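Give me the fold.
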Amino acid sequence: MPKQQQIWSDYVISLTPDPRSGHVTLSSQATAMKIDDKPLRYFLAVFEAGSIRTAAENLRIAPSAISRQIAALEDRLETLLMERTKRGIIFTESGHMVAAHARRRFEMDEAFAVDLAAARGAIAGTVRIASGEGFVVDLVNHVVRPLRDEFPDIRLEIDVAGTEKMTHGILRDDYDMGLVFNPPRNPDLELLAEDHAPLCALVPPDFDLAKKQNCVLADTVNYPLALLNPHFGVAKLLANVDQGNRLTRDAFLTADSINVAIHFVLSGGGITFLPAFAVSRQLRRGEVVAVPLTNPYLARVPSHLLVRKGRPKTAAVRAVANMICQRMEAFGAASYPNEHSRT
């Protein structure tokens, strides 16, 4: 179908003669176009991720399923939404329009659900949280279940990510809030909660270092070390203090997962560096010892709960933020046992 015909195919054209003048008025009216949610959600996921494969991983479905839905959407709209090139996907002007429409549509659906719940006297809606991996156990153990019990109409989406991805995602409104350890300062981010704690050397109980009340970074260099990748806030923090990059050079293990580093310590393999709240359960069971570091910049490291400045806060977002502030150990809601008082 030629392009001009394609444009007009979505319109009803009518000719209305004026009985007095004899002039004819041309009017057009767009026909209603019904599009299912699924293809729009899949296309928006690809648009935001920049690739079908990444979108498929985020949605936990096969890439072929996304491709079929987008192809059907293009047939339905009779227009090309994206082009596949050697350098990746390029979205057409129509693709940008459809993505904007999909985003508005889903935001309206969510706002309607919130308004309807409010009319029933309930607090409802989906709250998207970006979380550093070190906060996950604290968040799940102390917030998720109480939130479910108190606010059954709230839904949570939790995305575990590195500091850079989280801050960019908050600014793009991919997330309603973020739990970030030692984040960079940004005037476009609003601080909802803050607490400070020392970075600790996490040590197996039978290591000599475990007997210390505190230590400096130089005390740790002779122990096998698991170091986190540079996209972690902990790694950036250590890089500012580690003169000559000795830790990076001598690290036995480099990991892109806090869980890997923790299990390295639990196995007796060596030490790692994390805030104590990341291993509070292991601390209470005596499986690991947290020795606070006293170096400047390491003795008081901030944990932040962040939102984009100026972003409207729904009742659901306020409820989640309040529970995080009141219940998470990372924000001072609980004290850790003194692991060094054992005889």
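The chain is about 40% helix and 20% strand.
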